[in-house]
Amino acid sequence: MAARTTIYNKILQKSCNFGTRSMSSWWTHVEPAPKDPILGVTEAFLADTNPEKVNVGVGAYRDDNGKPVVLECVRESERRIAGNQNMEYLPMGGSVKMVDETLKLAYGENSDFIKEKRIAAVQALSGTGACRLFADFQKRFRPESQIYIPVPTWSNHHNIWRDALVPQRTFHYYHPETKGLDFASLMDDIKNAPNGSFFLLHACAHNPTGVDPTEEQWKEISYQMKSKGHFPFFDMAYQGFASGDPERDAKSIRIFLEDGHLIGCAQSYAKNMGLYGQRVGCLSVLCDDEKQAVAVKSQLQQIARPMYSNPPVHGALIVSTILSSPDLKELWLKEVKVMADRIIGMRTALKENLEKLGSPLSWEHITEQIGMFCYSGMTPEQVDRLRSEYHIYMTRNGRISMAGVTTGNVGYLANAINEVTKSA
């Protein structure tokens, strides 16, 4: 009996040792992920102890004191909903009221598409979540398709469609020499893409370049895409924040709708309402008719179910309360214009400061671009010098977040940029 117990204990010990070794080696092959190029800038900025440091890498609005802002319309909305709502799950498609109000912003207050119930729409986890839902929808129901993405674009776009396993192609967009739109090459890429391709378009305030097509150029893009049977998917993260006028910022979408396109659209309230952490967004897909819209919405909900099941409620309540209350909506329109005007004003100030310093370069593109970001044209090496010599932080592609520029630092920033670029 003792011998049998000894043998059993040895077997048990070996089993335990094997199990320990096996479990401890599960993740030894996992390497640290590369740092996000944008978030890494903020980390480096926070670690810098220099009192003159400047962060023009963050993609979030700041006031002229460099402080985060909570809009008064948001505060008042929170006061009105406080204690009046339960915390039950939203439907998989999210807040119907929020979605309805959001569609009016993109498609028009009196849109026939809304009246005819031709739009399949669901609440999403901000613009990122809306893009990801659509990418998965594209993969599931158009598995043979690919997505054409502009060069450059918001870096996360590539991650989203990659992880959804949708093949990616690129199309020309930015012209480095003119620091404007490479319209001729863009049109050639649209013409040469296989019929029925998917194209990712920034509705306004292109990130990272701040370069948007003119209204006439949008019309030509729409015409060419229609003739090729392409599907346009708009990412609209800056409606209202670009020009100060939500209607003007939705002009590209309206042009495509007037031309008879069926479109997809991702919307977000991070930038234009300052609801960054609430992750409030919407995905919409315009369909042939109401029956098709019902089917598409049901599939979008099915895709969302294993991802996150239901979207969060608080941010959706804030948005729906603002947009459905005439006084709060009017206040929001005033506040979003104040934000847009401050950004536009800082563009002018930066350009004027550089010109006063006698910079040999042209800085016209600073004021010709629009939205939160200015694609400065600086090289990675020049950006590195800004960081090491002047404690100014931005992404290495030379993208300046105009939200980080204030009346207090614009002169310092201009002087530093002039110093690192004057020998270019």
Walk me through the structure.
It is globular, with a radius of gyration of 25 Å. It has 424 residues and is an alpha/beta fold. The chain contains 18 helices and 13 strands. Strand 7 (198-202), helix 9 (215-228) and strand 8 form a beta-alpha-beta unit. It has two domains: 39-69 and 339-421, Aspartate Aminotransferase, domain 1 (Alpha-Beta Complex); 90-324, Type I PLP-dependent aspartate aminotransferase-like (Major domain) (Aspartate Aminotransferase, domain 2, 3-Layer(aba) Sandwich), CATH 3.40.640.10. The mean pLDDT is 93. The strands form four sheets. It has a seven-stranded mixed β-sheet with strand order 2-10-9-8-7-3-4. Belongs to the class-I pyridoxal-phosphate-dependent aminotransferase family.
User: Which structural class do you get from the secondary structure elements?
Assistant: alpha/beta
Please state the overall shape, judged from the principal axes of the Cα atoms: globular
Chain-averaged pLDDT: 93
CATH architecture of the largest domain: 3-Layer(aba) Sandwich
- What portion of the residues fall into strands of 2 or more residues? 5-15%
N-end to C-end Cα span: 88 Å
CATH class of the largest domain: Alpha Beta
CATH superfamily name of the largest domain?
Type I PLP-dependent aspartate aminotransferase-like (Major domain)
Write down the CATH topology of the largest domain.
Answer: Aspartate Aminotransferase, domain 2
CA gyration radius, whole angstroms: 25 Å
Number of helices in the DSSP assignment: 18
- Which bin fits the share of residues in helices? 40-55%
Largest sheet, strands/sense/barrel: 7 strands, mixed
- Strands, total number: 13
Physical arrangement of strands within the biggest beta sheet:
2-10-9-8-7-3-4
Whole-number tally of structural domains: 2
Which residue ranges are poorly predicted, with pLDDT under 50 across at least 5 consecutive positions? none
Catalytic activity: L-aspartate + 2-oxoglutarate = oxaloacetate + L-glutamate
InterPro entries: Aminotransferase_I/II_large, Asp_trans, NHTrfase_class1_PyrdxlP-BS, PyrdxlP-dep_Trfase, PyrdxlP-dep_Trfase_major, PyrdxlP-dep_Trfase_small
Subunit structure: Homodimer.
GO molecular function: L-aspartate:2-oxoglutarate aminotransferase activity; pyridoxal phosphate binding
